Amino acid sequence: xxxxxxxxxxxxxxxSLIRRLAAALMMLKDVIVLAGGDPDFPTPxxxxxxxxxxxxxxxxxxxxxxxxxxLREAIAAYYKKFGVEVDPEKEVIVTPGSQQALYLxxxxxxxxxxxxxxxxxxxxxxxPTVRFLGGKPVRFALKAEGFHxxxxxxxARITDRSKILILCSPNNPTGTVFTEEELKGVAxxxxxxxxxxxxxxIYSEFVWDGRRYVSMASIPGxxxxxxxxxxxxxxxxxxxxxLGYLIAPxxxxxxxxxxxxxxxxxxxxxxxxxxxxxxxxxxEPIKKMAEEYNRRREYLVKRLNEIEGIxxxxxxxxxxxxxxxxxxxxxxxxxxxxxxxxxxxxxxxGSAFGxxxxxxxxxxxxxxxxxxxxxxxxxxxYVKEHRA
Length: 388
Ligand SMILES: Cc1ncc(COP(=O)(O)O)c(C=O)c1O
Known about the structure:
Helices cover 40% and strands 13% of the residues. With 388 residues, it is an alpha/beta fold. It has 2 domains: 2-30 and 284-386, Aspartate Aminotransferase, domain 1 (Alpha-Beta Complex); 61-280, 3-Layer(aba) Sandwich (Aspartate Aminotransferase, domain 2). The strands form 3 sheets. The protein has a 7-stranded mixed sheet with strand order 2-8-7-6-5-3-4, sandwiched between helices. It has a 3-stranded antiparallel sheet with strand order 9-12-11. α3 runs antiparallel to α10 (269-280), α4 (69-79) runs parallel beside α10 and α11 (284-305) packs parallel to α13.
C-alpha cells in the first residue's frame, strides 16, 4: 500500500482521462484512435537535422535554466509578429513543453484558497492542476452559441479571492478564436480586479477563414499582467520533443526562476537548438501542415453534418471538431463508450472538458482524410443504430 505516502489530494484525484483512454487503447486492434491532439505529421526535416547536428557537435550539457539565449531571442523575434515586444533576457522561460510552463506558472502563483477562473469547456489539465496546488478552480461557462466569451458570466464568478483567469485561444476543445473585442473585455475585468491572465496560445498558428490571431499580451496594458504559454508541439509537430515556453512580466519571471531550476534544472540542450531552427524557418512546412488541417476540417465538418442527428459547427481555429451529439445521446461518455465498443472509434467525450461540454464530443484532425472518412462512416452507422 505504498500509495499511503502520496498526498491525500493526489489519492483523491482521478488519473487523466486521455491517459487512461490511451492505455486501454494500446491493447486493442482495428481501433481508429482520435483521442489526443498529437499531429500525425513528422517534424520538418530542417528541425530534425539541427538537433542531430547539435548532438554531434557536443551540445550535450546543461544549459541556463531559463533556456539558451539564442532560443529566447528567436522567441522574442517571433512574438513581434503578434505585436508583442518581448525582452529575451528578462521575460522568457523555455520549458520542457507548455504543460510545464503552465504548471510552473500556477505553482508560482496559486496560494491555498485562491480562485482561478477557467473557461468551461476548456483543456482538461487546468482544473486538476489548480486543485492539486490548493487553489479553487471556478469555471465560467462559454456561450452556448460558438463557445465565445460571456463577460457577464465571468463577472458573476469574480470574488475577492479571484486571482487568476485562464484563457485558451484558439480554444481546445471548441476551436473558438476569441475576438479582439472579447479580449479587451477580459482586459478591463482583469484590470478592475487585479487578475493575472494566463493565456494559452499554443494553437495560434492554426486560425481559419482569414481570421487574424490576437495575442492577449498585445492588448494595451495586458503584457504586464499576462503569462503567455506557448508550445512547439502543435505548430511544428514536435509533441515528443517536449519544448515550450512562457512569456511573462520580468518580476514574475525572476520569482519563477527561483524554483524552475529545482524542478527541471534546464530544458534539453539539443532540443533547444532545434527550437531555434523551428522559429527561424523555413516556415513552408508549417504552412503546408496548416493547409492540410484546413482541408481535413472542411471535409469532416461537411461529412459529419450529413449525418442526421449530428450538428458540427465549423471551428474557427485549432485542429479539433466539437460536434453536438445530444440528439443521439444525452451523455457524451455513453456515446463515446458505445462508439468505441461497437464501432471501434475512440474519441473524447465533451464532458471531460467541463460540464458545459456535455452533449458534444471532440474529434482531432490528426489523421489523413481517408482515416477520417472511415471514422465518419463508423460514426454514421453508430448514430443510425442509436438515434431514438
Ligand atoms: C490547450 C493546450 N495547452 C497545453 C497543451 C500541452 O502541450 P505541450 O506540453 O505538448 O506543449 C496542450 C496539449 O494538447 C493543449 O491542448
